[in-house]
């Protein structure tokens, strides 16, 4: 089986390989080929990343515009055509934005063709707001506000200063804007004219400032074909035994669908 792996902004394929090593080691019996790509644009490190990983660092696009996202989707689809097919895509943060945009645009514009991949594993990432807008999704004003504020909160909570002074206690989420809303209430903030219809896995942490974005991404996928796991941490992939076992089990489920 082949899995396409899409890293977060300001990291790289090699960094994503390291970030996922704990749960991937539990999948050694699955005969999985993980293909870790680098984004096409070199950029500065994501907040906190340069404390642990050397450059280079990459991004999938320069600006969060619909044109840039579409260009990245087209480039990814070309890569898949040359190197696929892929049984799954595994994505983190900005990689989730790219993968979910590719699936939505495929479903809206080329549903007669096979999907870019058969199943999707989303880790700590949300959907593309520009893509949702273009496809006619209705996103509440509160959700739009939170999307902007959460990006700034992530930079602060994930940054070098927070890591060095607070360690794991730096992750405080964004309670001021989620206001104790349940996940079902957060999902109701998006009205969906269509949903991603392949099997999906959604892994996120309730202390992540981008937690609501991860819940929103689950909202645009079919409830009966999705699995959800809250690792209760921040914008990261924890490497503890219980979390790693749980994520590995979810990957097995996705690949068996």
TrEMBL record:
Keywords: Hydrolase. It comes from the Eukaryota. One of its GO terms (biological process) is antibiotic biosynthetic process. Pfam families: FSH1 (PF03959). GO terms for molecular function: hydrolase activity. Residues 1-245 form the Serine hydrolase domain. Coiled coil: none annotated. GO terms for cellular component: cytoplasm; nucleus. PANTHER family: ESTERASE OVCA2, SERINE HYDROLASE FSH DOMAIN-CONTAINING PROTEIN-RELATED. This is Serine hydrolase domain-containing protein. It comes from Penicillium cataractarum.
């Amino acid at each position: 089986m082949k899995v396409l792996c899409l890293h977060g902004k300001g990291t790289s394929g090699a960094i994503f390989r390291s970030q996922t090593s704990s749960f991937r080691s539990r999948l050694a019996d699955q005969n999985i080929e993980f293909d870790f790509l680098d984004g096409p644009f070199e950029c500065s490190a994501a907040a906190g990343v340069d404390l642990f990983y050397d450059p280079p660092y990459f991004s999938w696009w320069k600006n969060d515009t619909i044109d840039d996202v579409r260009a990245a989707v087209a480039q990814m689809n070309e890569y898949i055509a040359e190197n696929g097919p892929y049984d799954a895509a595994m994505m983190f943060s900005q990689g989730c934005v790219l993968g979910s945009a590719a699936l939505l645009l495929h479903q809206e514009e080329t549903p007669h063709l096979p999907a870019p991949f058969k199943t999707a594993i989303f880790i700590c990432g949300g959907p593309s707001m520009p893509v949702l807008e273009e496809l006619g999704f209705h996103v509440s004003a509160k959700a739009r506000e939170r999307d902007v504020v959460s990006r700034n909160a992530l930079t602060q909570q994930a940054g070098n200063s927070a890591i060095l002074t607070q360690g794991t206690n730096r992750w405080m989420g964004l309670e001021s804007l989620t206001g104790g809303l349940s996940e079902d209430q957060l999902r109701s903030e998006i009205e969906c004219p269509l949903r991603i219809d392949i099997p999906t896995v959604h892994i996120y942490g309730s202390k992540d400032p981008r937690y609501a974005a991860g819940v929103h991404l689950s909202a645009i996928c079919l409830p009966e074909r999705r699995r959800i796991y809250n690792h209760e941490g921040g914008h990261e992939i924890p490497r503890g035994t219980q979390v790693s076992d749980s994520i590995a089990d979810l990957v097995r489920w996705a690949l068996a669908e």
